[in-house]
Amino acid sequence: MTKHIIVDGSNIATEGRSVPSLAQLHEAVMALMDEFKNAKVSVVVDATFGHRIAKKESAEFEKAIANNELVAPPAGAVGRGDAFVLAIADKVNASILSNDSYQEFHGKYKWLFDEGRLIGGKPVPLVGWVFVERLPVRGATSRRSVKTGKVVKKESPTASPEASKPMPVPKAPPPSVKAKMANELMPYLQFVEKHPVGSKVKAVVESYAANGITALIGDISGYVPLRNMANPQPRSARDIFTIGDSVTLTVVGYTPARRSVDLAVPGVVDAAAKPAGKPTVAKKVAPVKKTAVAKKVAPVKKTAPAKKAVATKTPAKKIVAANAPAKKVVAVKKPAPAKAPVKKAVAKKAPAKKR
Questions:
Q1: Is cis: bond before 73, omega within 30 of 0?
Q2: Whole-prediction pTM
Q3: Is-contact 213 219, C-beta < 8 A?
Q4: Going edge to edge, which strands form the sheet with 128-133?
Q5: Domain ranges in the chain?
Q6: Please, are residues 103 and 15 in contact by the beta-carbon 8 Å criterion?
Q7: For residue 43, which of 61, 22, 29, 58 has the smallest C-alpha distance?
Q8: 249-280 pLDDT per residue, tens
Q9: Domain 185-281 fold
């Protein structure tokens, strides 16, 4: 049985991908440790690995380097990570997990063709990582290396006529890249409001992730990292959980920037001591809900007095009507004194006719 395995981390992390994934490398290493339980495992990556992975994995990569979980070649090493991987395997007589054939090194490390010295691996859908023994592929570079007995440079492939043509001008701008959110906004806000840090929830194990598991709490997706599963931390989430299990978990924090829910096995993490993300979210959520209610209620209250104001206008018409007779009274009194002097003047002229 293999006693020591050197993992070509850069090769395994890029298997089936255009750029390396630290999460994929972690899954492969965990599966390898499960299959070769008594073997020592060392993971080596090239010097550019940390610059090529996703930015969200950078912090985890730096932590893995600091804890010696990942090893990078010294600065200026010839042959990048491949030479370093082969030098380690040659020194400790170890096997190598890689899908590379190392053709430029065939003349120097002839043991690559010995049985059990090279292991290949690929992730199989619905199965997981599968590992098999393999032999290096020979080619023109391999023949030159064997012939000289030294390390040679890889032959650069001949460019096709199409590759020599000018680059086409893009017709549209590239799509914007947005951070992937763990949950939808409204379900996430409702969950945060109802489940403060320290709450216990019922969840169903959905899938294995890079360093833990993803669990579903209704429509909400939560994450349980390895460090929150047991103390000491288990080697693999498969040692603790099985997909489809119904489990009780504790909410230990929130990350509003990704709408993620951090979970833990009850008793493993002290939720009171962990900085909670919920208070920050709660301050943002509370005003939104209160403002929405205030806007709806305010128009209703203002509408009620508007009807009363219309009703109070009715007496105003009565007051105007009451003033109408006042004008008629004034019109009747004015002609009366005007006629009185006319009658008196006629009476005084009567004696003039007798004369």
A1: no
A2: 0.47
A3: no
A4: 40-44, 4-8, 95-97, 118-124, 128-133
A5: 4-152, 185-281
A6: no
A7: 29
A8: 999 999 998 899 999 999 998 644 444 444 43
A9: OB fold (Dihydrolipoamide Acetyltransferase, E2P) (2.40.50)
